[in-house]
Structures are given as structure tokens and as C-alpha cells.
């Protein structure tokens, strides 16, 4: 009879362990630090690393065990960046570990940091991790498949607020990329539907659970065996498929009526039921409002995506190529924004894209969110 750990680990071993990396995992000199932010992830991450042939990751002792007060961190969300990883980075430097993986209290979010030259830490954004993991999962599939023509049955999935980097990789490599609405129920149902149809889903970009942490470790070990860092590989991905510069952040708003008013103003910006045509100096090409089922890019102006009235979500496609989404959180008192500018493969235009993206975001916040007027609280980190 299987123990609970054997029962839990078996599907991870069966579905995720690949011959590409296991022998490397067992010999890698890389050390890993893991923090579970006072949550439930510690035991599961330890077990997953063992299944993949790694030495156990070094736990952050102050944050290893469940603590409902989250006493060592102001905000137990690894997505907040370097400021919440202080204990992890300090321990990594002490132990000579080059990679930190952090899971939030319920272990469905992941952050990754990598030590660079001169002692600098690179904390990857969620979209950067998607680029790396998408590249890695396709690389592993490509190495293991016997017939390259099978690529037409390969899929990756993301959400409407994710980076389009996976779409760019798919366009060049020949597999399929699909978008769903944000939320595990949407992407999970689509994954199941594709699997039921006999398709191969190598990567879906929404929730990480525990598996992503150990797959990141596997990828890092493989790259290290080739004397490449994850940051260097990310740069290679951008050079190959085009720079995808994105920014995700939020404002706190504790008044639901204010949130509704902000979005209703956008829906009647240029008159009754007329969405904005400009945001400051930036012309708007298309507007998609999945809350109302509207999409100006479609001939019938109806959204291809399902109508979802559970939260507010409006996406603007600008004439300069920027795509930006304003969305209310379904679980937190936040208005989130997601914005991205994409370049062409082989074009070294990163600094231009970064500058242009910042200008669009500043205009978006000033003209559409109006933080001072609406009493919005800026993200503090």
C-alpha cells in the first residue's frame, strides 16, 4: 500500500520527470534555497526535489513551518519581489546557493531569484518565468519526440493578461498557443478538453502549485551544465523571438463602488456606451471588455472570450502596439494593470520598448484610473 507521499509523488514522477535532465539533477553542483512563507509548501517541495533526483533544497528556517501570523514578512506573496525575499537571499548568500525558489502560503504561486555576477540578484517576473518554462518544456518535448510533425498536436496555454511571448515562440516553432480568461477554472478546463481530444499540452501558464518550483530547478541545473544562467537564457529567448517587455502592478481600493465607477466611466468615456479613443496622446486601436461581452476588433463587436461578469476587465490595444488590461481582482481589494510592448526578433530595441511602455502606463494610470481623485493606494513595493 502506498504512503501518502508515494501517492502524491507518483504522478509528478510519471508526468514531469524527463530523461533530458534527471542525470544532470543528480550531479549538479547548484544549491537551492526554498521558502514556503510560513505556509504548507515545505514538505511538498522537499519531496518533489527528491523525486527529481536533487539534493534537498535548503529551507529558510524562520519561514519553514505554518504560521497564520506570517510573522517574518509584511506580505507573504512572493510576487511582491525582492523586498519579501530578504531572508531567503541572505541565507542563499551564506550557504553559497545561486537559486532561490519561493512558494506562497498555499503553494500556488512561485517566485524565483538567481544570483548574478557582482553579487546582484535577479528576481524573475511571472512573465519572464513563463518565457523560460515555455522554452524549457518545448525543448524537452522536442528532444524526446520521434516525429517532429507531431508538433501540430502540441499546445501551450496562457491567459489574456499573460505575456504574449509563448505565442511568439509557438508561431516560430509550429505548435499551438491559446488564451483563456484569467483563473485556474478557465485554463484547467481548456487543458482537460485538449487532453481529452488527444492533444499534448506541454505547458499552461496560470497557477504554479509545487511542480513549477522543481521544474525550474531542473532547467537551472541543465543550463548550469552548459555554463549558462537563467538570465542569459532569457536574453537568448528574447533575441530569438523578440523582446517582450511587460509590467504588472496594482492599486488598492477598498470601496467596491469606486471600482465599479472607474470601469463604468471607461464604458461611457466619449459619450454613452462609447469607449475611449485616446489615452492621453496614445491612440487606441481596439477595446475588449469581457465583462460586457464587447470586442471592437470583431466584425460583430462581440467578444470571442466568454462573458465574465464576476470581475471587471477591459483591454486596450494601442496604435503603437502596446496592449494593456485593467482588471479588478476577484479575491483582493485591488485594481490590477497588465501592459506589454513587443519587439521583432533580432531587433535590439529593449530600451525603446521599456521607455515607451512606461509612458503608456503613466498615461493609463493618470487618465483612466485617476488615483488621487478615486482615493487609490499605490502598491508600496
TrEMBL record:
Q: Where is the signal peptide?
A: none
Where does the record place the Alpha-D-phosphohexomutase alpha/beta/alpha domain?
23-113, 155-209
InterPro entries referenced in this protein's UniProt entry, alphabetically: A-D-PHexomutase_a/b/a-I/II/III, A-D-PHexomutase_a/b/a-II, A-D-PHexomutase_a/b/a-III, A-D-PHexomutase_C_sf
- Cellular component terms, GO, for this chain's entry? nucleus
- Please give one Pfam family short name: PGM_PMM_II
Q: Tell me which UniProt keywords the record has, alphabetically.
A: Isomerase, Magnesium, Metal-binding
Molecular function (GO) terms for this protein are: glucose-1,6-bisphosphate synthase activity; intramolecular phosphotransferase activity; metal ion binding
Q: Does the keyword Magnesium apply?
A: yes
Set out the biological process GO terms recorded for this chain's protein: carbohydrate metabolic process
- PANTHER family noted in UniProt: GLUCOSE 1,6-BISPHOSPHATE SYNTHASE, PHOSPHOMANNOMUTASE 45A
This chain's protein is named Phosphoglucomutase 2-like 1
